[in-house]
């Protein structure tokens, strides 16, 4: 495909920011990778590696690391935000101090903010001053950075209130290893990406407890049911949950050793406590904060989310994982498709 080279800033030099910078560099774009750790930026510029996050990978020499946000954003129109959800507001505030040009922001993070209960595109809209935000696009889907950086086939979805902007981002990223779809259901895409991390933690716990594939299939399927139940109440399309950002991302995160959420859950299932687990991970485990947010959302929307509730109790109320599973399994009997009846607005 014929492509015009663009100048793009990727903010966040962790696993995902670095892997996406590689996709953009492969597509011939001028990529500036900003990180807040000058030692790591030196490593990127002098050795073309990012050993902490992608230890096996040599980066294209056309990716230039920046530790000054002002320099990284000079003359830039398109920004990829690849920091953890809890850093989004801080980084946006820093951006608004050093730039006055309207920006297209693509966020690639997977979380919901506890207490405010905002999705990431909503947090960005809230933080960006009037006139500085051209559009917000989300890019999400089953995509471990480790595999994207090896150029293994990967599919993702972009969404936005402004589908013209989403299509532009589709063109920026798409290539023969990295296939990008569009979906206008912004709420569904963001909710699916964020909430799958909760179920991945639960799947890791199940594996850590020594349970097998039956339990994992149950968690993925019933997890999807509760994510869709909440998502639909929040305004998402039920169809989105059968797509890449729904079941697709659930499968990859619940079944892959690359997943930090699955790995954290696995350690919890094996008996470590949350503090130990998070200390040992050294990378973001989004599902922990998102469990709190989803628990609050379930209360707000009056939605039944048994797996989320069980995980909330393990993480924040010191409930033993085995007891939490026993609790889930001994609930009142029910109709499997009750959820579907809700979604379709009738009885089955
Ligand atoms: N990894 C993956 O495969 C995928 C991740 N995602 C999502 O992308 C988002 C980022 O994840 P990922 O890259 O994996 O996380 P990592 O933990 O690998 O990296 C996070 C990066 O953000 C930096 N950072 C943290 N806080 C700040 C801050 N306040 N200001 C500036 N930089 C900051 C970290 O810096 P430091 O090194 O100093 O801690 C690090 O460079 C998450 O929401 C995740 O769910 C989505 C799809 C795939
Ligand atoms: O979102 C991801 C893959 O699509 C990455 O998941 P983890 O954050 O659990 O590693």
Automatic annotation (TrEMBL):
It catalyses: sn-glycerol 3-phosphate + NADP(+) = dihydroxyacetone phosphate + NADPH + H(+); sn-glycerol 3-phosphate + NAD(+) = dihydroxyacetone phosphate + NADH + H(+). Sn-glycerol 3-phosphate binds at residues 110, 141, 143, 196, 249, 259-261. InterPro entries: 6-PGluconate_DH-like_C_sf, 6PGD_dom2, G3P_DH_NAD-dep, G3P_DH_NAD-dep_C, G3P_DH_NAD-dep_N, NAD(P)-bd_dom_sf. Residues 185-325 form the Glycerol-3-phosphate dehydrogenase NAD-dependent C-terminal domain. GO terms for molecular function: glycerol-3-phosphate dehydrogenase (NAD+) activity; glycerol-3-phosphate dehydrogenase (NADP+) activity; NAD binding. The keyword Protein biosynthesis does not apply. One of its GO terms (biological process) is phospholipid biosynthetic process. Pathway: Membrane lipid metabolism; glycerophospholipid metabolism. This is Glycerol-3-phosphate dehydrogenase [NAD(P)+]. The lineage of its organism: Bacteria, Bacillati, Bacillota, Bacilli, Bacillales.
């Amino acid at each position: 495909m014929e492509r015009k080279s663009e100048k793009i800033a990727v903010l966040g030099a962790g696993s995902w920011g670095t892997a996406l910078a590689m996709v953009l560099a492969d597509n011939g774009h001028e990529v500036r990778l900003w990180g807040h750790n000058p030692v790591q930026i030196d490593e990127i510029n002098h050795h073309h590696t990012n050993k902490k996050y992608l230890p096996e990978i040599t980066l294209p020499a056309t990716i230039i690391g920046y530790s000054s946000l002002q320099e990284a954003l000079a003359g830039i129109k398109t920004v990829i935000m690849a920091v953890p959800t809890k850093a989004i507001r801080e980084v946006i505030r820093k951006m608004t101090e050093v730039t006055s040009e309207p920006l297209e922001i693509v966020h690639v993070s997977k979380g919901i903010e506890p207490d405010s209960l905002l999705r990431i595109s909503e947090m960005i809209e809230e933080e960006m001053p009037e006139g500085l935000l051209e559009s917000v696009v989300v890019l999400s889907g089953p995509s471990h950075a480790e595999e994207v950086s090896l150029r293994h086939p990967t599919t993702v979805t972009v969404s936005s209130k402004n589908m013209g902007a989403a299509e532009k981002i589709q063109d920026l990223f798409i290539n023969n290893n990295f296939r990008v779809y569009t979906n206008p259901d912004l709420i569904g895409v963001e909710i699916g990406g964020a909430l799958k991390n909760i179920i991945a933690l639960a799947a890791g716990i199940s594996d850590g407890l020594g349970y097998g594939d039956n339990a994992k299939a149950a968690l993925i399927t019933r997890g999807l049911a509760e994510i869709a139940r909440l998502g639909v109440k929040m305004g998402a399309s039920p169809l989105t949950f059968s797509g890449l950002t729904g079941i697709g991302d659930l499968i990859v995160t619940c079944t892959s050793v690359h997943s930090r959420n699955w790995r954290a859950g696995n350690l919890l299932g094996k008996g470590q406590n949350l503090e130990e687990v998070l200390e040992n991970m050294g990378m973001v485990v989004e599902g922990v904060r998102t469990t709190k947010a989803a628990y609050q959302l379930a209360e707000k929307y009056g939605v039944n989310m048994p797996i989320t509730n069980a995980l909330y109790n393990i993480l924040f109320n010191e409930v033993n994982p085995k007891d939490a599973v026993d609790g889930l399994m001994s609930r009142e009997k029910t109709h499997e498709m009750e959820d579907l009846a809700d979604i379709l607005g009738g009885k089955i």
